[in-house]
Design goal:
three-stranded antiparallel sheet; single chain; GINS_Psf3_sf; Methane Monooxygenase Hydroxylase, Chain G, domain 1; GINS_A; nucleus; GINS_bundle-like_dom_sf; mainly alpha; DNA replication complex GINS protein PSF3; elongated
């Protein structure tokens, strides 16, 4: 029997994949902002009015879903301005630079990496620092640097490989959605290997992530 839904991976970087449930949910995350001009008939949509005919006055503070913020953002017309969520501000960037592993990403933002990448669509002087925080954190008292994602990735995969047939709820509680997906991949790989080692599987197959990556590379070459 075929599956009713085949999981679709999220987009990469500043692009979204609207066939991905993760990206659809991420696009509902809200950004703090301000109306730089009056917004006709948007009060109800923004949760600031009781009628679809009401407008939002210029200067109003807003909580804007990502999908709507991207639609309204226009550097020339200045319809809205967008502020950084606190986890992407300098204070939290300092925490990441000290030790990326101490942060409870799921509590602060379940789509930390994807949402942070989407913030780069908006003109903000701190964009270079945001991008660096997502990808790289300088380790204090060291001349070397470690990528934030890589530093956390190592611990995630170590945990997934050392938690066979155990309750993993505490291990994944602090991970964002991307990291949780990677943890599940690690767990599945370990389970498949254990089955193969016990003679319960005929062969080890490549991960779907590897297969999809290979297909993407072939498409790029053909293009």
């Amino acid at each position: 029997m075929s599956e009713a839904y085949f999981p679709v991976g999220p987009g990469l970087g500043m692009e979204e994949n609207f066939f991905s449930l993760d990206d659809i949910l991420m696009s509902q995350e809200k950004l703090p902002g301000r109306a730089e001009s009056a917004l006709p008939r948007l009060a109800l949509l923004m949760g600031q009015g009781a009628s679809s005919t009401e407008s939002i006055p210029e200067g109003s503070k807003l909580e804007i879903p990502l999908w709507l913020a991207k639609g309204l953002h226009d550097s020339k017309r200045r319809i809205i301005s967008v502020e950084l969520p606190k986890i992407y501000k300098e204070a939290w960037r300092t925490v990441f630079s000290a030790d990326a592993n101490v942060v409870d990403l799921h509590k602060m933002g379940p789509y930390y990496y994807g949402f942070g990448s989407q913030l780069l669509n908006f003109e903000n002087p701190e964009n270079p620092e945001i991008a660096q925080t997502i990808l790289q954190a300088t380790v204090s008292d060291s001349v070397c640097s470690l990528q934030t994602f890589v530093a956390r990735f190592r611990r995630i995969m170590d945990s997934s490989q050392n938690a066979y047939n155990e309750d993993t709820s505490a291990l994944v509680a602090r991970l964002d959605e991307l990291e949780r997906a990677l943890f599940q991949v690690g767990q599945k790989g370990l389970n498949d290997f254990q089955c193969w080692e016990k003679g319960q599987a005929s062969q080890i197959t490549a991960s779907s992530l590897v297969q999809n990556y290979g297909k993407r590379k072939l498409t790029e070459v053909d293009g």
